[in-house]
Design brief:
Layout lengths: L17 H10 L17 E4 L9 H10 L14 E4 L1 H7 L8 H26 L1 H15 L5 H13 L11 E2 L5 E2 L4 E6 L15 E5 L4 H6 L3 H5 L1 E3 L6 E3 L22
Length: 264
């Protein structure tokens, strides 16, 4: 008598790690992919763009893969399918499969492109034992109600507004990516030195902070980092290269006579 075939059991829902959540959040610009509005880490839910129940429906998943031109090895539980979402939006979406439209195709393609960044950020946090442990402790304190989100946000605001009051280095400055530098590490501050009325990706000129980890050449340009990396036709040598390389020996065929002052 043949053995009885056990009934099919649906796979258990994926439990997201702290590192996975962080990687997805950062890779997608700290925005909800359902409404495109900013989302704070503590408000974050991870949405399966294509719902998790498709893992148990190979035929439906195969159709999705063909319709959206996804790679053959596309996995529902992978960074390619995880996106940050607000709780209410995620709840409204539930297990619905997105209907194909050109806009949906664009979003799915962007998700695929950001998967590698999400995985890299998650792995970096996993390997950085101190950062991971610190973040875990903060989240644990919030979950156990020993610390409120309001307390944490107020503390961060205090740090940025008055670093000295919290025993941080004198003249400490927080950069746009959240890193902090002490006053003795800051070599130069200035408004971006590009010739336009606003910086790339900004609706106005930005105040730039140049730290000791940067090369003298980069500091000397006075350029906001995005302006520095922008490809332009060089006004000196007429070739196309980064704006920050204008007049630089080894990058521009018409280098400045004085490389230190970046002038002739």
């Amino acid at each position: 008598m043949p053995a009885e075939v056990p009934p099919h059991r649906p796979r258990a829902k994926h439990r997201f790690t702290l590192e996975e959540r962080y990687g997805v959040w950062v890779a997608h610009g700290r925005k909800c992919r359902l409404c495109d509005e900013p989302i704070k880490f503590f408000e974050l839910e991870i949405d399966h763009y294509f719902p998790e129940h498709l893992e148990n429906d190979p035929e439906a998943l195969a159709q999705i893969i063909r319709k959206y031109s996804l790679p053959d090895d596309f996995e529902i539980n992978s960074f390619a399918n995880w996106v940050p979402a607000h709780r209410n939006g995620n709840k409204r979406k539930r297990g619905r499969v997105p209907q194909w439209t050109p806009d949906q195709q664009t979003l799915v393609t962007e998700n695929l492109e950001r998967a590698a960044t999400a995985a890299r950020k998650a792995e970096k946090l996993r390997k950085d034992a101190f950062s991971g442990r610190t973040l875990s402790q903060v989240l644990g304190a919030i979950e156990k109600r020993k610390l409120t989100l309001t307390d944490l946000l107020e503390l961060v605001d205090d740090l940025v507004e008055d670093p000295g009051r919290r025993d941080l280095p004198d003249g400490a400055v927080f950069l746009e990516d959240g890193r902090m530098f002490g006053g003795d590490e800051i070599l130069k501050t200035c408004v971006c030195s590009c010739e336009r009325s606003h910086c790339v990706g900004q609706d106005r000129k930005v105040q730039c902070v140049f730290t000791s980890e940067l090369s003298p050449w980069v500091v000397g340009t006075g350029l906001f980092h995005t302006c520095y990396d922008e490809l332009i036709r060089c006004p000196r040598c007429a070739s196309v290269h980064r704006r920050g390389y204008v007049g630089r020996v080894g990058s521009c065929s018409e280098p400045f006579a004085d490389q230190t002052r970046q002038s002739d």
